Batch of 4 targets.
Target 1
Amino acid sequence: MGLHDHPHVAADPGPRGPHDAGGHGQRPAGAPAPGTPAHEHRARGPAAVRCFALTISDTKTPADDASGDVIRAHLAAAGHAVVGSAIVRDDPPAIEAALRGAIAGGDGRPPAQVVVATGGTGLTSRDSTFEVVSRLVERPIPGFGELFRMLSWEEIGSAAMLSRATAGVVAGAVVFALPGSPHGVRLAMERLVAPELGHLLEQLAR
């Protein structure tokens, strides 16, 4: 049983609207206050970002790729463009090839500015996403993993330390490596990834 897959966790409700987290008219949790530099940077960022959804699994198929579905749904709900998606086995060469292909584009698909991967971030002998992403990253974004584990700790306690969710810049694109469970993916997408994509791209363009 993986992280965030404990039986007490409710089924994933899908993307939520901008007022669901804190009540109608309230600023969502984690959103920068108006007038702050972070708020201004986010406002200057692109409203739509080209994204690629990558599922890393030895067993998933398009018919049961629930975590990939969560990624695509949240990206679309936030107004971003999902330019492609794929499922690859948890194998370092396959993961690296998929990441590089998503970022490079080709076959009529534009290059992805952001790749959101799910799976392979645990501690089993088959979990190799963290190693691959860490090796490819030119500029790490350590705050993502730190915040994700903090949010996970609020829900699942000390088991959050087992997560190796990570993020960084690879060949000019932002890569997020999320856990394999739909609940963990929803947590990361809703609280961290989708709200900040425009801000991240604004910073990278400087």
Target 2
Amino acid sequence: MTGAPADLVWRQEDSIALPFTAADGPRSVNETSGAATGYSRTPQGAVVAAYQIATRIALGPHYAEVVDAQTVFDASAAANVKQHRGSPDPSALGDVHPSAFKVLAYLPSQATVQYALPNPFDGSYNSYQFTVVWTDDDWKLVAPSETAAAQSLSRVDGFTPF
């Protein structure tokens, strides 16, 4: 459905590998809140935004602030994430990041993206899916459902390489 974001680079922030591109964002990162904002309203912008936001929530030190600023979670989902996220060690992942993605659905108001991360133990891929919506002039993450749970893939046929 879409080509890879142009000139994408992976940068380490708080020991997390995150995607950045001049064309699709993020255009700014708030060091206090951890929010990365300013994505393009394109499929590529949605690809970068969904991964940035979900990863900052899953592994970042400012996850509660990111939940408040960059999601459309209802109060119950937001409270659940804040209470049960735990204390992951992102440095254990090193520079691991998705090698490919697939835009499953795209409208200017909503996008669903699937990511494939290499599994270093057996050559397969771990796949994650996220949905973002365009609101307040930026992409915001929708609370994950059961479809967002990790899946194992043996191949990434039909995915776009980063």
Target 3
Amino acid sequence: MGTRADYVTRPREWIASLLAREPRFLSAAEIHQRLKRGGARVSLSTVYRTLDRLRAKGDVSARSDAEGEATYMLCEPERHHHHAICGGCGRVEDVDCAAMEQFAESLRKLHGFELDGHAMEFFGRCRACR
């Protein structure tokens, strides 16, 4: 029989479900407020712990917003991609970026530099906000 950590907890289900419905990054405080408004009894510290666990599993992507606060979004862990973020409404679109693989290969060949990872975000306005 597995340990409690092997099972999906109710807060993890609530947070993953909320993030699955949101096409934008949300702070832990925003997630906590929305869960409370929906009737969920969950502490802010539980939200942070759950987000940390989901991030460690690769299910959640994190970034800092303009004020430096960590924000989170559900992502597909098996597919490497980047984000196009609308400065108007905050909507996030996944962007496949084959050009990054070419860039990484160029770094290896020309400079002998092996990337451990990378992060790239694109900022602008979505169709609805233009």
Target 4
Amino acid sequence: MNTCELFGIPLALIDREGLLEVVGDWITEPGSRLPPAPRLISYVNTHCLNLAHQDEAYRGVLASFDLVYADGLGAVWAAQWLHRARLHKLTGADWVGAFCRRAEQHGWRVYILAGAPGVAQQARIRLRRAYPALDIVGVGDGFFAHKDEEEVLQEIARLRPDILLVGMGVPKQEKWIAYHRDGLAVKICWGVGALFDYVAGIEPRAPRWMRNLGLEWLWRMGVDPGGKWKRYALGIPWFLARVWRRKYEQLSASLFREQKTTE
């Protein structure tokens, strides 16, 4: 698939329909990618890109994933301004309904490993009410409180779901996925962040008008100021400064090449 490299991370130029088509193709592809070699999917937003700038291991893990998409307008804007590339904002809460409908239709088997104790269980209850044919074969919490890590890995190996959805927050979930990749008996392992906090009703989504204006970050900071103020109040200006610096470097390099060609 076509990608755009943003601060060392290749991001897929893909929309929601394309994302779900890729997922379906990977589930049904021939046995060359059967476990223990799952396909890996995750996302980046402004916060992720800031973390990746500071954490080389996280940046390297993201670069090794099979598909990384934009989950936030900051990444979409930066790719457009720096590279004239059109990314699509693919927030989990916006694609999860379409994902569940497709999973019902095609019989995809799903395991949810996400959130604080009880979140994944509540999310499963809600999803089954909305999508009765959705085959959620198992759940576990991202803190390994009810089942320890080894129990979860053994359960996944026994159940062999098609898709493992991992919501532990960044960069923990990506590093966990990469570390366990060779032993995960799944076809796709997908880092989804706080998706199931929304699905379970733990964290409310911003009103649609705020999402349309790109102000979802402001809502999230208002809902959880103690946990989110640093991420947004400091992280957004720092990200903008890094983008501006990269643009200046691009313009400077372009002017230098033009001067060399005229000499």
